[in-house]
Amino acid sequence: MSLLTVQDLRVSIGGNSILTDIDLSVDAGKVLGIVGESGSGKSMTAYSIMRLLPDGSEMNGKVILDGTELTALSEEQMCRVRGRQIGMVFQEPMTALNPLHTIGDQIAETVKMHTKTGRSEARRITLDTLRRVELPPEEFPPSRYPHELSGGQRQRVVIAMAIALRPQLLIADEPTTALDVTTQAQLLNLLKRLVDDDQMGLVLISHDLAVIASTADDIAVMRNGVVVESGSTDEVFNHMQHPYTRELMKASAHVPEKLAPTAEIASPLLIVKDLVRDYKVPRKGFFDKVSYFRAVDQVSFTIHRGENVGLVGESGCGKSTLTRAILGLEDIQGGSVSLDGEFVIAKDAMSLSSRRKMQVVFQDPYGSFNPRHTVGRLVAEPLHALAIQPDRAAREKAVNAVLARVGLQTADSKKYIHEFSGGQRQRIAIARALINRPSLIILDEAVSALDVSIRAQILDLLVELAASDDIAYLFISHDLSVVRSFTERVMVMKDGRIVEEGETEKVFRSPEHPYTKSLIAAAPKTPSVAY
Amino acid sequence: MIRYLARRLLSLALTLLVASVVIFLIIEVVPGDTASLMLGVNADEETRLALREELGLDVSKPVRYFNWVSGMLTGDFGISYTYRTPVSEMIADRMMVSFPLALYALALSTLIAFPAGIIAATKRGSFSDVSIMGVTQLGVAIPNFWFAMILVTIFAIKLRWFSAGGFPGWEVGFFAGLKSLTLPAFALALPQASILARVMRSSLLDTLGEDFIRTARAKGLSARQALWGHALRNALIPVLTIIGLQFSFLLAGAIIIENIFFLPGLGRMIFQAITQRDLIVVESVVMLLVFAVVAVTFLVDVAYAVVDPRLRRRV
Known about the structure:
The structure holds 2 protein chains of 2 kinds. By secondary structure, chain A is of the alpha/beta class. Chain A has 2 domains: 4-252, Rossmann fold, CATH 3.40.50.300; 307-329 and 349-522, Rossmann fold (3-Layer(aba) Sandwich). Helix content of chain A is 34%, strand content 25%. Chain A contains 18 helices and 20 strands. In chain A, a hairpin with a 2-residue loop joins strand 4 (57-65) and strand 5 (68-69). The longest helix of chain A has 18 residues, at 181-198. The two termini of chain A are 34 Å apart. Chain B is mostly helical. In chain B, helix 10 (223-252) runs antiparallel to helix 13 (279-307) and helix 12 (266-275) runs antiparallel to helix 13 (279-307). Chain A binds chain B through residues 50, 52, 75-76, 79-84, 87-88, 90, 92, 95-102, 109-110, 113-114, 145, 147-148, 158, 161-162, 282-286, and chain B through 3, 7, 10, 210-212, 214-222, 225, 229-230, 233-234, 307-310, 313, 315.
């Protein structure tokens, strides 16, 4: 008999159906991967199992854990199941811990909540659990506070809280999405080890097919609150039945059709030479000397006209600082940046005509726009960089033209940003970048927050625009597979330096620097299958 | 932690220094000569100069500033121009009323606001939430002098539970003193409690929506345990800021309430001193209030550090 069985689960919130007829089962010692795009109901399924649905939701169907029907338990009984028989791990490790309590107290809380152990026994279990999640108490004493740990370490603490009492089932909702690839690989290994050690069942939820494929024994593919396909991992990947699964698979491995590179050697567009960016480190004492942190260390590279260059590296490596320095948004402490022959200088010293040649699209399609301006106004904003200000009619014409190019309607310019989906917002961001006919667009994690199918569309759009307008891209991402399929040349950054650079395919096939090797080894791979 | 406190103390001292200079200069630019004002228009020049000497007004400004500050540091605030008594004694007398009144009002406001805010937040959208929000809306809107008069009408005139005003002094007995401060304290506390309850509610609602509350629930805590164990302390941080601001306001801002209840407090004293051009009193009381505000801010900073471990490390 299965450890966890979900039968005919239906959930609605305020009359809107969220989940329909979900059937799932997990065996002890096995991993069930639930995969789907945003809004597919993955997380809601997890919350239904935990019976932690938002207020106003209605739940029908059965959830049976080890012979006990959870759906029939009272809230009080359910509190005894949570944390004791089912543990749960969440997506955002930065906010999942209470900032005011030590990690030791937070782990011990799970123990004290469910058992009548004394203080010393709870402490022993806490230390033991820290060891199990590979945070040796000698290095990470339980007296630490969450803000003293990195994202990966915090996620280990969250896992420790969930497994302290060796629950039968662990639910992990996008546990590695917010983390770097190497950290992700370590955490997935940890989860697999815990499953093996304790014969625990694991429900692993992710939007990332590759993560699921490399970890799960069984897979359920969800879409719009329905499980469209399920079965063992091999079975699902080898005989995809449902068209949506195939579509998902195709989109996640999507390679935009690149045009054959032109034979002639293009002229250099952006030249970065020995760039140095230091940050002041806050003084410890009142009379201490000011010290500096070198975020970008002697970085040099060139991007040619119409070229598509990738920049990869983990969080904190200096990618974003480098972007800001290239854009002239911050003072630099050494070296130079020149665009099309003109030096980029921070503040207003740089000519507007030169500034308009360089645009940027950021990661967050929700936070990058002023919510109180119409799309037309947002998109027209860069026009002030033009030497001759267009009149109202010309402005409107330009906005409409550029909206059409990114696949939006003229009527959309009158709407506000909240009326659009994430993918559409990213199209608007691209329209804003395009309106001044730039020669270089910096894409700072521009597709990272998008679902795979939307991501594929946006990548196609970018390639198409590059070909027609001769635009060069600096494509910054932590997602190696996208960088591989999208860029022609790639640079790998670590600790403020570029450690490896070369043709993308070559670097991925035969990386030379040990760091590049470890990055590529850590990246989860989607099994190659025939579509 | 010690470094954090040392830095807060340093900034406290600097603030006081700057404040003393500013207060001194402002009082200095007020036109009119204190001595001629005290003596009237017909006084002869010799008497005027003698009085100026007596008051210590004949020396240069920097010297006077120095005398004033060094005097204050040793507890000598000078002699009141109008009453001819030491300002320090006058302040000490008044503080015995104003300080307890402010504390009393703050205690009431906190005692009312915390439960009200917590209930409103945990039962969001319920009847109790809606009524608490309605009452606090009213509490913010009603002027406290009007509320004070209503209190007097009901509890002093109709029910005769409290006296309508005056302060018998603490010599009569602690509870008698406290009793006479009760109505003014309620009048002062009403708007404060209303604001505080609303802040408490919204801060708690924000905190209850945080991810770590979800984590706590997943560990098996009931909604109630998650509230007391995790949400409350986190929600307290913005509330502390408001409490700090309110205390300084209560200490200095009770002028109208003190007048309505005939309480011999600091607010009344500074009001009278200004009308009588008793500048030395004004200077000293204002400085004292600045000190109180800065000291409360310091205490709030300390409270932050106690509540929030992230601040202890921040330098």
